[in-house]
User: Fold these one by one.
Assistant:
Number 1:
Amino acid sequence: DSYVCMTLAMAAVHGCMAGYTGFTVGLVNNRTVMIPIPELAQASPRSMRPTGRTWERVVSITNQPTPDVAASPARDPDSRD
């Protein structure tokens, strides 16, 4: 585990030092690769509603400021994420 973490961390630092932005690093076929975040998000089978309970938990746990309630659409209390 520590070796994989070190390898991924070094790849991320190398990408940043090379001037790349908007990427993450990962292992694909046992090779360290840089993956563009937009492509990663587009290919993800999961999605999260920004007004759902799961996102509210993420915001709460990470101590982010809550969005303006007047600016966001009303949330259906019976819906679940």
Note: The beta strands are 23-28, 31-36.
Number 2:
Amino acid sequence: MSASTNACLLGRERAGASFPAREMSFILDGGEGMTDYKERLRSLLTDPVFDLQARYYLDKEGMYRRGLAQASKIHKIVRENNLEHLEHCFLNTLLGDIAPTNLHDHVFVPCLRSLANDEQKERWLKKAENYEIIGCYAQTELAHGSNLHCLETTATYIPETDEFEIHTPTITATKWWIGCLGRTATHAVVFAQLLIGETRHGVFPFMVQVRDVNTHHPLSGVSVGDIGSKIGFHPVDNGYVSFDRVRIPRTDMLGRFAHVEKGGRFVKPPHAKLAYATMIFVRASLVFGAFNSLGRAATITTRYSALRRQFAPDKKSEERPVLDYLTQQYRILPLIATAYACQFTGQYMMNLATSLFSGMSSGNLDSLPEVHATSSGLKSLVTTLTCDGIEVLRRACGGHGFSAFSGLGHILGNALPTATVEGENYILTQQVYSGPHLVYLSIYLSLCTYVFLHSQPTHPL
């Protein structure tokens, strides 16, 4: 079947829609102006380095280097067009891939914005935004991920020198799975148990340099490297790090909400979960980004199903597109509806998180428990729907769905970590502990069910 025939068949299917597709784009994007704006940003990605076809012929090293080249080009585009941080993040989502600096842009920089005090922002934030330093979020350890209270890395206050000593006391305390750390990062926000004298005050974030910014060699007392190949996320250098009594200044404890004064007096945060504020923002971002993954997979499978022909009602007739068969529609259409539901839910979740962080700047923490529970529950629900849905869509493409060139395996491989990062989904649902938050999720599920029922085929094929 020729390319022109394919285009004709797709055009015929699109012409048969019962609604104007362009107006649907306006709804999904949040208005006609936002659609136009996103298209203008998308038009900036014309460099050959953004060509998706090249990735299928690359090994791990090649994908990493290609990712760095893409990140460098996007950073240049951001500078030349004077784009804001959120616009930078949006360009990253248009890549169809994950850049090695993705965790720097989406986690490390927001972490500095939310947890660093004004003096620390003066020291680090502009450098981070300009890629003068590259950072990562070093929380998970070899032995502990979800149970953050039992992290083993320690930050012991040394009153004689007014410093913290960052230490990895056991091999299980090694920071593990840390994105952007294996080869790229020069700095890390390290979550460690704060020890002052004999008192353990809990887990707090500390800014620790791990590599020289000029030579990129590990600093004294720092053992750092890449953890190796993974199922997906290939361009990202997930790494490990351990510390052998590394000293940092007392003022390098991220101190917007909690800090240690000279001499060792600990000033507690106004809310115990404020140290994990970045996690809340990342969970909200995962909810928001689920539509992108599931929507791409649904688009690929729908287009394939419109072109793929199998069986004819009689010998004189042409074979029918598999999209015309009821069984195929039952697999695809509910997942298109789910992608739309994820989009609207993601917009709501990001608005909720943005409102929280705006209030935090003036000391208003009233919505923190609600946003924490809602982001936990929705992250678990939406990423599970996304991962399961992409696999259903991959199978709906038959043998071609198993080919790397379909793009579906790539999308699935990059989506799978979302069910684990920032809280493993089965455990994370336990954060949804009170009636109001269960009501929110019930409403969401009801909306999904409504959309599902009203998207079913109305005629047998």
Note: The CA atoms of residues 211 and 219 lie 5 Å apart.
Number 3:
Amino acid sequence: LKPPSWEGPARPTRPGARGSALGPWRRWMRDDSLPRSCGSCGSCGSRMYRSCGRDLLSLLALLALAVVPQGLLLAAAEDVEDDDDDAGKGYGIKSGRALGWLADDPVEIYYAEFLLASWVLDRAPWNAYHSALGFVNNRTQGKALFDFSPEDVSSVMNMVLPSVDVQSPVKSVLFGDYKLVWKDAAKTQFFDYWPSKYSNFVKVGRTNGTVFHKFSGWVEDVYALKYHAFQPVEVAEAGKGNTVRSRMCHDFVTDALWALYDEGVSLAASDTIFRDHIIMYASGTTRAEGMVETMRGRRQWLRYLRGVGLYLEEIKEQFTHARNALLVGFKLGIPVFLHNEHEEYRVHLVPPFLNYCYLPLAIPPQVHDPFAAMKLCALGMEANMTNSTALMPWGPLLALEERIDRPEFLPSLLGVIAAAFLC
């Protein structure tokens, strides 16, 4: 996608870590990535319950708030059409090494994409694309293509939010006794042809058979073994750039280009290539693996999901409503959490909270800059802080829960009661 009236040069940007990350519609995960403290009667649950100790009594005040509509606890799903006529035809990555291309074969490299989904925002089309990296052997005219795709594309919302398995609303609110089910499993694929759904190819470089086989080995031995989940959201901090990368098809392409660049391949495109980003804006991020294994951390994560759930129908109708959900949560003081395959994060949001933007694809040695001037975003870069109101009564009740669920609440309450009694 190239909007017709953008101005300004692309600014250099570089992914902080050579992994992968980004693309708004892909993010999937394995069951063994679920938080380990599930609140069950197992040994981990027992440790979790014993560790709460001092602040458990303070949570009794939440009993009046614990009967929460089940709909606010369960993440809804939005069905999307899957018209992938080449689904299931990808081969194992090892096939890339078995093509029989000779060491000195001239090979061209192409950025490949096709239209994945389209919306209308403010009477203008807004498109999301899936991307991959293609190769052509100029001696044999043989082709190859590598991509990173979700296992299940039946739901858009499942790529962003988990479903919440709640056996008891009271236990989930008081003890964090619930399970998060992520449906974000992804796979790295190889094709010994160019699938017909890819409609746009842009040449980005030349190499030879030796480098192609090295690249195939990198995909097989490094990328495919390390990454198995789609995460469409990245986190950006002013002055730092990306502090948490997304992991999508586009990010696979970025990392693949860096792998080729590290082998000495010169890369460039005749025109600017744009890709989509879902960006959270933050003042900082905190690794939260230990936090979300505690009762209080699990209660906070559930409050975040319940807060987003209040606006889920609007978000399904138009994804830009997600900013309003985060803005309201920010006002209410509800912590924000971000899950990816290898880490859990607590994100300290700042305005404009969230945006969906097209930015230039950073071709090495350029690196991605989420604050680059050359971009087109679905929302403005300033959030309206005065035109958002929490839904009654659940918004204020979530804020009250968050304030009660603090270690200092019970001592403070007892102090107030003692002072009132003495007076």
Note: The first strand starts at residue 106 and ends at 121.
Number 4:
Amino acid sequence: GSDASNRLVPPSAMDPDAGNANAVATDVQHVIDGTSWKKSSRDISIAGIGWIGIGVSGRCTINVRTPKGKGTVATKPRDQALIPDFAE
């Protein structure tokens, strides 16, 4: 079968410890507030992997685990999401 999990890893060139099994993985917590499931409230980017749009009605907490907690960022609430309406 096809297992995508071995392809969704940040390149070690971004962080020398990224490919090191002994690197400490740390959660980065993003709290997202939104008003609709039908549009993106915020985007979260993960270095070397890409980004995801989060649509939520209310509040949710997303934990992203990366080596040393580096390489992840959420857009600020006032910024427009990359794909603001993903329900269409």
Note: The two ends are 32 Å apart (CA to CA).
